[in-house]
Amino acid sequence: MRAFLTGATGTVGREVYRALRGRGVEVRIAARRSRALADTLAGASDVVVFEFEAPSISPTRFEGVDAFFFMTPLIETQVSASLRVLNAAIEAGVHHIVRLSSRAAGWDERSKLRNWQREVDDAVTESEAGWTILRPCSLFQNFIHDQAEAIRTMSSIIVPQGDGLIPYVDALDIGDAAAECLMYPVEHQGKTHVLTGSRAYGAKGVAAEIGRMIQKPLTYIDLEEAQSRDMMLQAGMPPWLVEARLAVFAHAKAGGEAAVDPALSRIIGRPATSLSDFVDRNRDAWQ
């Protein structure tokens, strides 16, 4: 089979590519012209130039494709851009679409980003193709991308999570789950899978485990929401993304993020990656 993959150079997309290649699936990668994929994705050969924000998307990009991993970039025009991409895939006859969404799209009715994600989710489920929606919760990788500098320079994790618990999930596991859904569409047709880890963690517990592994005590600094908002805006994050991220932390503080869903382990046929295993695998990121 041949799968079409958007977002292949991102945190989750790289893991989907790895999982598909490891299972012997032919992968066509959509990429901007400027991307040097050879430095990021070993063995990438079937690459098509693809601009999400282009005024039109040719169905020929999807020619010969059986399944489509549909990840939308974090842009303000993501709904209109995604609909153009989806229509091109449908016109080309793609049989099954695995759409990467977010668990927050299932409960956050206020954030623009989650409204946009639901619009795209709905377009996929109402399309002529078979579909599976993946809604992962927050990633373990956030403690690398967002917190590595604070851990290295301040010996701290700084998030507005309070004592809230989140069942963080490993992008590696999401990649394996997506590959299973792409390869075995009949088993996952018409299903929305919420993907979480097997245990919910507080930020204090994450700090303790990372500190134990790198032999450096870490402090958890619980920011006020206003402080966190100011920091993210000053870093150049768009307001609609800031509000969506803050909504997850507020939901966690209210106890709404703690629930663990068993779907991930069922799909991948093994336990979800634990915090200890994730930290052990990535310890160099914080040193």
Which labels suit this protein?
single chain; 287 residues; alpha/beta; Rossmann fold; two-stranded parallel sheet; 12 helices
Description of the molecule:
This protein has helices at residues 11-22, 78-91, 112-125, 142-145, 148-154, 171-183, 185-188, 203-214, 225-234, 239-253, 263-268, 275-281; strands spanning 2-5, 26-31, 46-49, 67-70, 96-100, 130-136, 156-159, 191-195, 219-222. With 287 residues, it is α/β, with parallel strands linked by helices. It has a domain at 2-136 and 171-195 and 260-268: NAD(P)-binding Rossmann-like Domain (Rossmann fold, 3-Layer(aba) Sandwich), CATH 3.40.50.720. The chain has a seven-stranded parallel beta sheet, with helices on both faces. Strands 7-9 form a two-stranded parallel ribbon. Helix 2 (78-91) links the parallel strand 4 (67-70) and strand 5 (96-100). Helix 2 (78-91) packs parallel to helix 3 (112-125) and helix 8 (203-214) crosses helix 12 (275-281).
